[in-house]
Amino acid sequence: xxxxxxSTRYLLILVxxxxxGSIIWSMGFETLLPLLRDxxxxxxxxxxxxxxxxxxxxxxxxxxxxxxxxxxxxxxxxPEWRSTQAQLRQVKVxxxxxxxxxxxxxxxxWAGWKWSVIWLVGGIVLIIxxxxxxxxx
Length: 137
What we know:
Elements: H1 8-37, H2 41-76, H3 79-89, H4 95-134
Helix pairs in contact: 1-2, 2-4, 3-4
């Protein structure tokens, strides 16, 4: 089969490159070059360190959101999740049995969301650190 130049994959890669390139272009011409022209070396260094951290943190948050959505769809369609959910919907399930089922569902949810939460929190931390570094001078 022949590879198409305008396939969905190549189009998405092109869109991502244009988007990323526009961000880099904006950072260079609107932030870094004015600092370089004004010879504000400390502010330039702070921005050279802080802006990439902010970008990496944003990418980490986007990845974490994708992992969250993917893993939520995976574990909520698992038979164990569905049976426990059906058990909780029954009116006759009360007391310790209900609490055990709720704990089981929370455990399944945490197992499914653990890595996405780590990515999201890590991205937020990087954005905060990058923002602090950028605003130091």
